[in-house]
Structure formats: structure tokens, C-alpha cells
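Session log. Operator J.P. requested a structure for one protein chain; no other inputs attached. Running the standard single-chain path with C-alpha cell output.
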Amino acid sequence: MFTPGMDSARETGIVEADTVLIPTLFVWPHGGRVVYLSGSFTRWSQLVPMSQVEGYPAVFQVIWNVTPGLHQYKFLVDGEWRHDEHRPFENSEYGTVNTIRLSAEANYDIRPETPSGMDLDTKAFSDTDTKAFSDMVRISEGTSSPLVPGISEEDLRVSRHRISLFLSTHNVYELFPESGKVVALDIDLPVKQAFHILYEQGISMAPLWDFNKGQFVGVLSASDFILILREFGNHGSNLTEEELETHTIAAWKEGKAYLNRQVDGYGRPFSRCLIHAGPYDNLKDVAMKILQNDVATVPVIHSSSADASFPQLLHLASLSGILKCICRYFRNSASSLPVLQLPIWAIPVGTWIPKFGESNRRPLAILRHRASLSSALNLLVQAQVSSIPVVDDNDSLVDIYSRSDITALAKDNAYTHINLNEITIQQALQLGQDSYSSYELRSRRCQMCLRTDSLLKVMERLANPGVRRLIIVEAGSKHVEGIISVGDIFRFLLG
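Structure written below.
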């Protein structure tokens, strides 16, 4: 759900590293129809919508990131300013306000004491249920308490061990399809031609072959073209359309210092070696290699000679392929892994808009459908994400813009006659789609799930070809609640 104050985080996708923020649960237990929270942590200039706790229509709650220190806050209930008499309060220039002092060493939840006359049959906020409720809504980094409700740390450890054991005893050969093709590009190809090849082949990346060295030297990906087009759209640069026609991939690698480079949070490239795997590597090592190097896929390269000459490109290994192996193996024995039956809101996985079920402190990058393509490309680089949910004016999901969508600009040389600052995300997505197939393409690319879906169900969806993330939406309204990627699944499963 969208809340005031999230605009800046959504537009930048980045929270300053030196800012300590504590996810804090605020609860208003005294009824009302529409309830907002405001306080010194919003500079009293924003109203934060609070949502009803399911099953308790008189109880409203919201999680808000608050800096350490003393804060004042109060509630706007049906247009009237109120404070919770059961919490510490004082008089100030804003009238009677509640107060809270936070330190950086602990997590906090501002829950109500059970008011007299308030009927909570299941004692959701009673002292005897405090720990269970706390575990359910307060999942954060660095805690040593049980991570998920309904499952013990031992069950979680056993589940992770069984998955880890499976991955460690199976190798990359199990990822190979019965038939298929792998596309590689010569580094002497012009950048423009490489751009069109990726689009025509329907792929977002390809390994690079250096004929002179007789080896694979890197990978050309959609991220590289994002950097190129950002430079192309910068009118102050010396980059011209002719350079795309004549410059080779090798020239870009050497001269522009973009290709075969990793990009930091400020869009600055830095060198790294080719990340690859062998056919006899176990699946766990490959998964960890993908996660640790923050890449989408790794080329599987094999050479029968001792000096590694004449290497063969066999496959492109991805987390989706490994996840498919896990689902296939454990599908008929899922009961042996209790964690797979849990709903995704109950476990620390994915990136969520701050509210009930928040799993981490990283803001979720979201853009409006009228935002410019330039802002989308900048956010993909700055937030270091592979996709951005696109919402309408009601914060309902309408589409998703991914790094791989950049290749659609190769159609009819669209990149040569568009202005990145003027074309909208919606228009950019339409460039690579035929009118009769746009709905089908959007449905296939924009995969959704609900917070109540089990981890196993989400894993099976993510194991489908071409699906790398699911947008978590609210049933009915399709309000974006979060996003869960294949990488998120593996970071949780491998601990």
C-alpha cells in the first residue's frame, strides 16, 4: 500500500547508508473508520494511513521507519486529532501527544495495552501473546529470536539443511535441457548489431567470445545497454549514433569502460572477472556464485584439454533452473520441509512496502506509469534492482519495467529517435509489443502473487521459464505490497 512519505524513497530507491532507521509498529486500538498517524518523524507534515488488523475492526496499525531519539506522535481519527491514553503522553505545542524514545540497539513495537471494554477474544494484544505477535510482525536483520511464526528454529534449520544437501549432491548437468541453443557474441561485433541480436533472439544477455584469445572473456547484458542509452541520452556527451554503428563490443569494453563491468550504487562501473561454472560443479556452489556476484546467469563452460583451450559453451545456468530442480525433487515430499507450507508474509523474504509483514528495511522501488524512461533507467542502476513495478494513480499494478525490456528499443531502431526524458515507461513498453499480443505479453511478464500464498507455491511459480520475480499485490485492488525474486528465495533457503 502506498503511504505518504514514500515518494522520495520510491523515486530514488535508495536510503542513505548513514541513516539508522528502526521499523516501528504503531497501533491505534480505539476504533474509527479512517485513521492516520503523524508525528515528529514525519515533521508533522504527512499523514500516514493506518490499516485495520484482520479480524479486529477496531484496531488499526502501521509500520513506519523511525530514527533513534525522542519522538512525539498522535492519531487523526475520522478527522479528529486523538492520542492514546494508554501510552506515555505529554503536552506540547501540538496539544497532547504520545511520546516514544528509540535507541539504535533494539527493535520496537508500539502496541496497545488491552483497554477495558475492548473485546479481543483471541487476546491478540494480551501479555501472554506478546511474543508470538512480536515474532509475527517484527522480522528484522540481526535478531536471534525465532524468525518465523508457526515453525521452530530447529525445523527451519532442518529444512535448510535438506535443501542444502540436495544442492550439494547434484551437479550442473541436471540443468541442461534435452535440446536448445546458447547464443554467444564475438567481441568484434558492432554494439548496434549486438543490441539487435539480443532483441531478435529474445534474450537479455550473451557470453562474449574473444577469437584472438580463444576464450570467453565476459558477458553482454541488458544492463550494458542501459548504461549505453543513458550516455546516448546525455546531450553533453560525445557519444553519437554513429558510434553505435561502428564501435565494437571490444571498443566499448576498452574505451567506454562499461561492458564486462559491475556497476555500484552510484552507476559507476568497476572491473571484475568473468563469472562462470563448469558442468561438474554442484548446484549449491553455482547458486552461491550467482548470489555473491549479483549476476542473473553464469555461462557453463567446459574444456576437455588440460590447458583449458578450445572451451565449449554448454549452457547458461540461472537460479530459476536450480529452483526448478528443487521443486521437482521436493514436490512429493513437501511435508518434510515445514517451511515450504508457510505464507510468504510470515517469513523474512522479499522486499515489502513498510506495513504489516515488513521483511526488511530496504525501500521498494516503484514508479508511476507516466514517469519518464530516463527515470526508470536511472532507478534500475541506482537501486541495483532488475525490475520496477509500474503503478497507476491509485497505486494499482499495471505493468513492470525490467532491465531486459531495454532490448525492445532495438525494434525499428527506436533508440535513435526517442528522448529518454520525454517518453514514458508505458510508451517504452509498447514499442516492443504488437497490439494483438500486448495483453498476453504483459500478463506473462507481470506475474503476481498474494501475501497468503505459500512459499512452495511461490517457488513453483518462480521456477517457470522467464519468471524471475513475482509482484505481491493486495487481492482485488492489485495495490502493490512488495516484490519477491528468485534471488530472495535462495538467500532465505541457504540462510
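Operator note: The longest strand covers residues 56-66.
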